Amino acid sequence: MSFDLFYILACLAVLFALFFALGPDIRARLGRKKPSSGTLPLPLLLGILVLVPLVTTMLYLQVGTYGEAEIDDPRVTQLRAQMIEMARDLERNPDQPEQWQRLGLIYKDLRHYGPAEHSLRRALYLRPDSAFLRVELAETIHLRSELPEMPPQARALLEEAIELQPDNLKALWLLGTNDFLTGNYEKALTWWEQMLPHVPEDSSMHRAVENETERARDRIRQQP
């Protein structure tokens, strides 16, 4: 459905609802009957019929979820086509951890965190020894929660990932960031220092981790 058609149908739907709500007033006016005491004044009636659809449309254009830009994005269109193919493939053969992983990561990339979590859980069920899947699932759960602090389940997944893969940089970074956020600066420093030997010294990531370790040390020194 094009945006113009959607726009027209939305306006018609609002007008249709108003007609039912204001039916007695409209019929009284069209029948040229003398307005009863409960009938809205004509200027107010006309104002409602004009302004409500207009204001509704303006609000929708500001905060609506139709996503015209998303529909016109070739990358999003391509991802959705891939998702349809993967979903059909998984329907025929659901025991494919690679496909569940790909599907989960695409959902995550599109910020559809509910389906992303489901797909990544399925992939992890089929591949329980994967540190990578634990980290991606943990981050998805955190993003879905929309909370500053990481949910306990997400943190547990990250710690399991570190047990499986002690040099998993993303898991170490996320754990350090969460501990710093919650005021556990010593633990955050430990995670970040564990990262440094595995990051090239001339990289921007190494400099970023060093900066965070310095911030953690400063906070530790400031503690009473």
Automatic annotation (TrEMBL):
BP terms from Gene Ontology: cytochrome complex assembly
Cytochrome c-type biogenesis protein H TPR domain mapped to chain residues: 85-205
Region (Disordered): 203-224
Leader sequence residues: none
Residue ranges of TPR repeats: 97-130
Residue stretches spanning the membrane: 6-23, 44-63
Alphabetical list of Pfam families matching this protein: TPR_CcmH_CycH (PF23914)
Keywords, in A-Z order: Cytochrome c-type biogenesis, Membrane, Repeat, TPR repeat, Transmembrane, Transmembrane helix
PROSITE patterns (UniProt xref): TPR
Protein name per its UniProtKB record: Cytochrome c-type biogenesis protein H TPR domain-containing protein
